[in-house]
Amino acid sequence: MKSSNNIYLTALVEGLNQVIPDLDSMIAKFTMNRPEGFDELIKTATRIAVGSEFQLTKPVPLTPIFQNIKTENGIGENQGVMYPLTALSIDRDKILPAEQCKINWAEYWGKFADDFSRIPTTGSTRLFLETFVYLLKKYTSNVGLSERSPYVSLFEFLKIRAALANAIYRAEDKEKPILMLCADISGIQSFIYN
User: Fold this and answer.
1) Could you tell me which of 165, 166, 132, 187 has the C-alpha nearest to residue 44?
2) Type and span of the H or E element at 18
3) 0.90 cut: is pTM over it?
4) Which end of the chain, N or C, is more open, meaning fewer C-beta atoms within 10 Å of its C-beta?
């Protein structure tokens, strides 16, 4: 399969390549075109997504953000709880945070590799992209971004960074490649809850 200028897919794979050992051998059957300046593009997208310089390295267990809320008694309740390192599931013991448990990253990424190897190598890039994003969500939603931001899902970060990189790459105006908009709809909460 040849991915021509699919920056979104290339950025997702690049992100995983930074956190999963030996990913290169898994993705060897898929050719990813890295355009000139791709590394700088990823740095820019990362800086926008995180708000500062950031190097994606070793993942950590995903923790509830509520642990970081300052209360009268100090910082957060239930320090030391994390989401289980399992593929997404609706089982009660797999979606709620629990006390720290043993983590075997090699075994976890091995399960991802098994599922990844089942993706067909023939067909459209779109089919591969949709299947790959599903696997990415399944295996990286319960993984924290870094020790600095363990409450940020690796999946959400990779998805946002890839979308920003794609938008910047495709922009006609290279000086101002993206326009970010923050909007608030007044009264939406009362409408939703009534």
Assistant:
1) 165
2) helix 7-19
3) no
4) C
Structure tokens at 140: 């990286």
Residues of the chain where predicted confidence (pLDDT) is lower than 50: 1-4
What six digits make up the tokens of 101?
């448990």
Task: Report pLDDT for 3.
Answer: 43
Maximum Cα–Cα distance across the chain? 58
HEC letters along the chain: CEECCCHHHHHHHHHHHHHCCCHHHHHCCCEECCCCCHHHHHHHHHHHHHCCCCCCCCCEECCCHHHHCEECCEECCCCCEECCCCCCCCCHHHHCCEECCCCCHHHHHHHHHHHHHCCCCCCCHHHHHHHHHHHHHHHHCCEECCCCCCCCEHHHHHHHHHHHHHHHHHCCCCCCCCCCCCCCCCCHHHHHHC
User: What amino acid is encoded at 119 in this protein?
Assistant: I
pLDDT of residue 162: 93
Predicted local distance difference test score (pLDDT) of residue 4: 44
CA distance 190 to 65: 25
Q: What is the pLDDT of residues 97-117, one digit of tens each?
A: 777 777 888 888 889 988 988
Which residue reads 């897919």 in tokens?
Answer: 9
